[in-house]
Fold this sequence. Notes:
Blueprint: H1 3-33, H2 37-91, E1 95-100, E2 105-108, H3 110-116, H4 120-123, H5 138-151, E3 153-161, E4 167-178, E5 184-193, H6 195-209, H7 219-235, E6 240-247, H8 250-257, H9 259-276, E7 281-287, E8 290-296, H10 301-314, E9 319-321, E10 324-326, E11 330-337, H11 344-360, E12 366-368, H12 371-392, E13 396-405, E14 411-422, E15 426-428, H13 430-440, H14 443-463, E16 470-475, H15 477-480, H16 484-496, E17 503-508, H17 509-514, H18 516-529, E18 532-538, H19 545-550, E19 555-558, H20 560-563, H21 570-585, E20 589-592, H22 598-606, E21 611-612
Parallel strand pairs: 11-12, 14-16, 16-17, 17-18, 18-19, 19-20, 20-21
Antiparallel strand pairs: 1-2, 1-5, 3-4, 4-5, 6-8, 6-11, 7-8, 9-10, 13-14, 13-21, 14-15
Bound molecules: ligand C2E and magnesium ion (MG) (2 copies).
Amino acid sequence: MTAHQRSALSATLLYLVLSVIWLQLAGYLLSSFFDQSADRLRWQLINGYAWVLVSAGLIFLAWMRRARSSGNEAPNADRERLRQAAAVFDCTREGVLVTDCNGLIVHVNRAFMTITGYVRDEVLGQRPSLFKSGRHGPDFYRAMFASLGSAGQWSGEIWNRRKSGEIYPQWQTIRAIHDDGGQVSHYVAVFSDISAIKHSEHELAHLAHHDPLTGLPNRLLFSDRAEQALASAQSHKRGCALLLVDLDHFKNINDSLGHTVGDELLKSVAERFRELFAPGVTLARLGGDEFAVLVENCSQPGQAAVLAQRILDALKAPLRLDGHALFINASIGISLFPGDARSAGQLLRNADSALFKAKSAGRDGYALYTEELTAHAQQRVEIAFELRQALQQQELRVHYQPVHDLATSRLIGVEALVRWEHPTRGLVSPAEFIPIAERTGLIAQIDAWVMDQACRQMCQWQEAGVALSFVAVNVSSRLFAHRELYDQVARVLHDTGLDPACLELEVTESAVMEDPEVALEQMHRLRELGVRLAIDDFGTGYSSLLRLKRLPVQKLKIDQGFVAGLPWDEDDAAIVRVIIALARSMGMQVHAEGIEQREQAAFLLEQACELGQGYWFGRPVPAQQLDWEHAPAVI
Ligand code: C2E
Ligand code: MG
Ligand code: MG
């Protein structure tokens, strides 16, 4: 039973007892004073009324007492509640601001002062517009007051200004407080400073859209900007140019000097590019050593070409990193909007085709996109797809081209040259598919297969009593620097049982000179296996003679480009003479390829070139069609 119930019960009992006593006493007194029952009856009635009056008085007093005591209790509870609320106000990390119905500040808490930098006295009596950042227009505040008016509250993100002048975002809830009459008496705003959250959001967005190494926009952001730029160019009837820049032989730097230097180089290159461009040009790193430049308001190929040349020139001065002075070139592919492409994706693809053309044309240059490049690019994609199947369906063939001793005309070796027997296109030249195989990585399988076939064929010839000194196999420059090459050669020799001295590996001069240190190491390892090494297409790769001297190579193959002009072209004749003298001075054999006429062979023999290969001796043919007897006499 509660205290209230208990006091109600005792009041009822008291009333009962008093009523009984009153009635008993009144009955006794009336019967002793009055004999006449009529009188007694009247006084009993009077007595009844008197008791009703007394009861009513008692009830009135009880109510009065109750009202007074509950009147005393209320202020106490309210005071307690207010104390609690004040404590919460002061402890909470959220800023609290209370205004009266006229919008004048009447209360702020401690967190408010921490967040805004204002002290209480500076803001009391002021309006919250004191904190306006200027970031929101009148519409924003109009919507806020409309929501306060209709729903009694508003919450949302709002930018305000601290006392220091700094503007910052806060998450704020404002609520209207009504009095007993239903009129707005106050507004309470509770807010938290969300600048830290905003900052992390911003950092995340930056990370998602920028390359962490160079700080440049990444592919995602670049594509986005390109799309916006094209849309704007379209509506303003202007043009845009996209330049795709790829560093030449960047991989060599990574391989030889390490990834740290590689990274530093990329940063320095990005820095150089940054200095080149004014606002309105978007520079991005799309990945690896590939950069992209989007130039708005550039519709003429000539303008884009000038820019490309500026990029190439900017790389001419050495980059100084970590004590090294490094030189790096680049190749650039250019595609224009709206002439070459209508979308950002197409523009990028076309620039990529043009880049491929620039690379194929000898690097350190730029190329403009043309429509036939798309056809080529499409063809390359198709060939890459079909080539994969060709390997599985055994459509590749090895042909052998005879190599003759120029002095005796004797056939002393063969070069294995791969062909693709395409089901519809017939015999496809390696010149067409080897570059694609190199780009797609299929070259490793192709070269391994050719080497295996050539070694097996050589064993068969030896078993059949054919006296050949060597079979030469081409090794792609893409594979030459790899460790796997050594394992692969060792495996093939082991599997086929071929005498290593009968296997000659041809590697192009440019592959050796791309990274001479790695090449040197690889060559020494291969020599340990006992195989012979030849430098193919010699004369086209700007070899350093000093480096050449250090290479454990047994043969130089003079590039057919120099043989073609023999014996009448004086330049070719002079170059060939020098190459032969050079090779002999270094104790290497000289082998001329591309001999198509007897005069060429005769000239070469006269210059003491030892070996010759070319259509005049014999074309590359399947193994069974090699003519062992045919030995055209040079003299
Ligand atoms: P290469 O190694 O310099 O091969 C010589 C090329 O010259 C061959 O072209 C050959 O058919 C051609 N040739 C030979 N004699 C004459 C001549 O008298 N006149 C003319 N105009 N050409 C002649 P092919 O077979 O088309 O091979 C082209 C290139 O493809 C080769 O040049 C070689 O770099 C590459 N290649 C061929 N087979 C393979 C292979 O199995 N693996 C790799 N990685 N590359 C290969
Ligand atoms: Mg060759
Ligand atoms: Mg060659």
